[in-house]
Each structure stands twice: as C-alpha cells, then as structure tokens.
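Lab meeting, action items carried over

1. Structure of the two-component assembly. Owner: GW. Status: complete.
Input record:
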Amino acid sequence: MMSDMTTRDHIINSADQLFYRQGFEHTSFSNIADAVQISRGNFYHHFKSKDEILDAVINVRLANTQMMLEKWEIEGKTPEDRIRSFINILIANKAKIKQYGCPVGTLCTELAKLNHASQPEANRLFMLFRIWLCRQFTLLGREADADALAMHLLARSQGVATLANAFHDEKFIKNEVKQMSDWLSSCIKGTE
Amino acid sequence: MMSDMTTRDHIINSADQLFYRQGFEHTSFSNIADAVQISRGNFYHHFKSKDEILDAVINVRLANTQMMLEKWEIEGKTPEDRIRSFINILIANKAKIKQYGCPVGTLCTELAKLNHASQPEANRLFMLFRIWLCRQFTLLGREADADALAMHLLARSQGVATLANAFHDEKFIKNEVKQMSDWLSSCIKGTE
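Predicted assembly:
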C-alpha cells in the first residue's frame, strides 16, 4: 500500500540522517520514533529493532550509491571525467563532511568497533566505489594496477574527510581535491 | 599514595583499551569496572563519570604521544628519518589498525558525532602530530608549505587506516606506506 510504503521510507530516511549525524550506537529506537512523529505501535509495525532499521538504511544507501555511479558513468564522456566526479563529491558535500565526516567511512568504522553483524553489508558501500573506480582506471589503460589506484584514491578521500571533520576545515578539502586532481592527471600521463 | 595511583592508572588503561576496541559510546561505566575487577565503591572513589575517565584517557594519550614524538626527534638524525618514523607507525601497528582503525582518528570521529565536550581535547592528539610534522618539513626546507605537507601526510595515513580497517587488509597498508615513502623522497628532491 502506498501510505504504508511512505511511512516506512520516512522512518528509514530519519534513521539514515540520525545515524550519520550522531552515530548508530548513540541513536536510540526512541530517537528515531520521535523524529518520525508516529505512534510506537505504528513504528513497531514497520521495524522490530534498531538493527532491522540499520539494514534498511544500508540497503537504501547501496541503491543510492549505485544510482549515483550509473549517473556518473552516463554523464562522464571519458573515464577521467568519471573519476573526477568521484573526487568532486568532497567539494559537493564539503559542509556536511566538515560537520559529520564521510557517511560511508564513519559508518564502517563504527560498525567495525561494535563488531556488528551488518559490518560486511556496510562495507559493500566501499566495495561499490572500489569496483567502479577500478573499472575506470582499467578503461584508462591502467589494468595492471587499477585496483591499487582505486584503493589509493578511496584512502585519500577518506583521510581528507577525517581531518576536515576533526579540524572543521573546508579550505583543506579544496587544497587536497586539487592535489588529487593533479595526481589523476599524472596517472593518465603515464598511459599516453 | 602509591597503591592509589596504581588503581587509577589501571582504570585509565582498561578504559583506554575498551574505548579503542569497542568505541567510547558503546563502553559502559560497568564494562570498565568489570575489566578492572574492583568494587564499585573503589571505582567511584576515582571517577564519578565516564566523561571524567575519557578526559583522563585523552590526557594519558597526549602524554604518550608527546613522549613518542620526542623519542623520534632524538633518534632520527635528519628530518627525513623522523618523518619516516611517523609513516612507519602504520606498519608497526598494522595488526591493531586492521582490527580497530587508528586510535586517534576513530576517537576524534566518534566524539565529533557525539558533539562531545571533549572533542577539542581529543583533537589535540592530531594537533601534536600536525605541529611536529610541520616542524620537520620546515627543517627539510619546505617552510612555505610545511603545514600543507603535514596535513597531507596525516590525511593519507588516516585514509589508509580507515580502509585497512574496513577491508581487513595488511598488504594494502604496506603498499601505501611504500608510496608515502616515495612521496616523502619526492618532497626532499624538490628542495635540493
């Protein structure tokens, strides 16, 4: 039913934001119910536990990430353009990254510490980026080290997010994005 | 009194490990008391709240970091040697990083999400490394961009820790440490 779907989506969306802004462990079942402003009965009808909500949040994030990567794939004329789309999410999301860090990295780090059963699922978010970047580097003619280049770029963007969050520094993000862009150009030069 | 100091240190040490391994929020006051195996009365005599323990843990980490940096300063004959000591902690601590991430980065990230009053204190851990690295790059003749180089290296080591933790991959750490070392050599070349 339509209205039923909408309430479920509303719960997932509120939980997604709360998990990102204040962490999974720190967010209680009640916090989410309060944010959605529905009765406990209605809430329990959709989700029985916070872990169930987490799985739903991860699934939505996986689907959204997949859609974003497909959009970059279509819009970018060359593999280089597409990799630049990845690098530039640091700029597009700089205000949120400064305040809350990277949504993927901070969730995976938290679930690893909690030794949470959903950690492998959350890791698939990193995997989507890794595999997609690996394919772009392969298309650039770097098949021999495509995965290492993908991991290197993922690591650099993660590190920038962590420090931008700690120091609340957007200028640092811009400076590092410029360097990642130069690094990408040097990767391409090596294949010409 | 000697015995009094020892119990306090024992509490701080247990809390330090629990905060690192399972996160600050997820570690309860009781978890720490259980780990130390002392009575609640004795425990409360030393610390009234988990936040008090956190501050003590951060202070111990700050003191230990300061000592480590001073040791590197004395042992390293050149600024290059000293920066390599920093890069190599990723190798020295690779098993723990693979399992729990970087102790500094994961604590700062968690406290930022909790909007915790001790976040600025925890950030001073990053600051100690930043200032120390900045001084080494200045000594290398890179005074103009010493702080940017320090932040770049800190970010790279943070990113490596985050991904090594997510993918449980020690080989990746070694591969990236080699690249950081090459990057350092290229920084020095630029000054000759």
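2. GW to write a short summary for the group page. Key points so far: The mean pLDDT of chain B is 94. The first helix of chain B runs from residue 2 to 22.
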